[in-house]
Amino acid sequence: MREAMATLARLQARSKAVGQQYYFRNSVVDVFRKKENDAAVKIQNWFRGCRVRAYIRHLHRAAIIVQKWWRSYLSRQHYQLVVKEDKP
After folding, report:
1. pLDDT at 88
2. What is the rounded distance in angstroms from the CA atom of residue 34 to the CA atom of residue 26?
3. The dihedral of CA 50, 52, 54, 56: what is its sign?
4. CA-CA 20 to 30 A from 35: which of 28, 49, 74, 77?
5. Cα 46 from chain centre
6. Mind telling me which Pfam families this protein's record contains (predicted)?
7. For residues 12 and 4, what is the distance between their CA atoms, to the nearest angstrom?
8. CA angle at 74 for the pair 68 and 79, rounded to the nearest 5°
9. How far apart are CA 3 and CA 34, in angstroms?
10. DSSP the chain
11. Rounded CA gap, 41 and 14, in Å?
């Protein structure tokens, strides 16, 4: 009986130590996982920002082309009107 009690006491002490080790290792892994996740989020934000800025540049260039064509059209209309008025 004494042997069984001694074994039980050793197992309980070991169990407590194993539980503490498990908790400590898990907390270390959680810190690493959070650090890695934060780094991934930064990379994703940078990449998405690059894509959005490129799309805005594209829209800006497209707007410039539309404005250029519109102003050219208005200038031709104005020129035709001026030429028409100058004819006797």
Report:
1. 65
2. 12
3. negative
4. 49
5. 6
6. IQ (PF00612)
7. 12
8. 125
9. 46
10. -HHHHHHHHHHHHHHHHHHHHHHHHHHHHHHHHHHHHHHHHHHHHHHHHHHHHHHHHHHHHHHHHHHHHHHHHHHHHHHHHHHHHH--
11. 40
Structure token digits, residue 20: 């503490």
Looking up tokens 């009107």 gives: 81
- What the block records as the tokens of 16 is 């407590």
User: Which residue is listed with tokens 């006797």?
Assistant: 88
Give the separation between CA 22 and CA 8, rounded to whole angstroms: 21
- The token duo for 15 is 């169990």
Quick one: which of 58, 40, 62 has its CA closest to 50? Answer: 58
Residue 3 in tokens? 């042997």
Place of tokens 């069984």: 4
